[in-house]
């Protein structure tokens, strides 16, 4: 039946209550179905939607944990905020020991500890310089609030051989200064869609300004901000240019408490414009004999050691070793006593089977393990030397580059 065929009274009759409710219900169902259908299509077109939602939830938790509330963040800033680290509760699993932090104790499970200057050994001069140059302007800003000179440097570069704890120095610096800490990775800024990388790059600095004081840390910075050339991809070149412009450009405020800290073992690969923006540089070199002895003492702290241990002898025989090398040496030495215990248990079980007698299996505890001896450390040193001989390159060669 057509509309014109309906009687005039039916058209002019007001709708009943049931008809109004039914119409509203149908409109609500239609609107909800349309909304979720469009949302499903958009999510299907964006393969990264799930990761974005996870990053948003993680960012909200981190922002609440570090005490940043009431700050409105964009979608891109939320993505960057998911890489925030709270330096006051910063914890790491100490698996790879380096020059500057103490190893985990020999336990069944990994030990977690907070990163601070107490976990750093070997470079007191570098630590003092860091405290005076970097940390003091962050902590005592109120003493010279009107000064344009009393402020932290825009950039700090930590360079040196691998395995010397540059990353741990950065974490300890962030914790001591009380700054928010963004652990920025190059993969965070790369996106398959054109223009998204530039938006993420801009979000790094806009987020840092909102939550300042803030340290943006880039590990292996040479892989991200290496020398520019005509062979660079257009998107990569634009991202580098925007990063440097936002870091120290026309729109940069002199009172902003945002610092970029980078770590590298190949400073010669960095772009000259990046080096110019990092006026404060620290060479984190290989430890000398006294420093190696201090590191060994820290690594072996809490271990069951023999009274005949001579750490000075081991330190003198490990010339050119990094902190991670020393940790590996001590790990091998600690494993020798476990191997001896296992062999003795195997021999005991064999003897028990030959005697055809039953004996209760005794529980294994650390008290039944013999102490670590000097011979264990020497065996570990011999194993480390064989490993180094098989290496095709030597670590100390890379980073002896003077940065004036």
TrEMBL record:
It is found in: Mitochondrion outer membrane; Peroxisome membrane; Postsynaptic cell membrane. SMART domains: AAA (SM00382). PROSITE patterns: AAA. It is a single-pass membrane protein. Its main location: mitochondrion. The keyword Mitochondrion applies. Outer mitochondrial translocase required to remove mislocalized tail-anchored transmembrane proteins on mitochondria. Specifically recognizes and binds tail-anchored transmembrane proteins: acts as a dislocase that mediates the ATP-dependent extraction of mistargeted tail-anchored transmembrane proteins from the mitochondrion outer membrane. Also plays a critical role in regulating the surface expression of AMPA receptors (AMPAR), thereby regulating synaptic plasticity and learning and memory. This is Outer mitochondrial transmembrane helix translocase. It comes from Astatotilapia calliptera.
């Amino acid at each position: 039946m057509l509309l014109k065929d309906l009687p005039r009274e039916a058209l002019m009759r007001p709708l009943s209550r049931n008809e109004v409710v039914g119409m509203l219900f149908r409109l609500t169902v239609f609107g909800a179905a349309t909304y979720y259908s469009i949302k499903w299509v958009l999510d299907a077109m964006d393969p990264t939607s799930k990761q974005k939602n996870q990053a948003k939830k993680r960012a909200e938790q981190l922002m609440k944990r570090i005490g940043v509330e009431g700050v409105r963040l964009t979608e891109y800033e939320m993505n960057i905020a998911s890489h925030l680290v709270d330096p006051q509760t910063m914890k790491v699993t100490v698996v790879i020991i380096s020059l500057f932090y103490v190893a985990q104790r020999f336990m069944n499970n990994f030990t977690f500890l907070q990163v601070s200057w107490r976990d750093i050994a070997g470079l007191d001069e570098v630590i003092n310089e860091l405290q005076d140059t970097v940390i003091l302007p962050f902590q005592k800003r109120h003493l010279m609030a009107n000064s344009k000179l009393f402020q932290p440097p825009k950039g700090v570069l930590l360079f040196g051989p691998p395995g010397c704890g540059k990353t741990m120095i950065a974490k300890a610096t962030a914790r001591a200064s009380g700054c928010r800490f963004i652990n920025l990775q190059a993969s965070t800024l790369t996106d398959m869609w054109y223009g998204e990388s530039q938006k993420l790059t801009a979000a790094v600095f806009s987020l840092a300004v909102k939550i300042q004081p803030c340290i943006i840390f880039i590990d292996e910075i040479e892989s991200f901000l290496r020398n520019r050339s005509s062979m660079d991809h257009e998107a990569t070149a634009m991202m580098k240019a925007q990063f440097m412009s936002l870091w120290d450009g026309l729109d940069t405020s002199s009172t902003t408490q945002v610092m970029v800290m980078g770590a590298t073992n190949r400073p010669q690969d960095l772009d000259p414009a990046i080096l110019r923006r990092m006026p404060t540089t620290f060479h984190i070199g290989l430890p000398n004999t006294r420093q190696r002895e201090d590191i060994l003492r820290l690594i072996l702290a809490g271990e069951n050691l023999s009274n005949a241990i001579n750490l000075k002898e081991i330190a003198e025989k490990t010339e050119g070793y990094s902190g991670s090398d020393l940790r590996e040496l001590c790990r091998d030495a600690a494993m020798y006593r476990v191997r001896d215990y296992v062999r003795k248990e195997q021999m005991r079980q064999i003897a028990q089977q030959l005697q055809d007698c039953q004996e209760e299996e005794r529980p294994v505890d650390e008290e039944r393990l013999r102490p670590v001896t000097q011979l264990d450390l020497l065996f570990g040193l011999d194993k480390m030397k064989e490993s180094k001989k098989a290496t095709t390159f030597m670590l100390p060669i890379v980073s002896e580059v003077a940065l004036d």
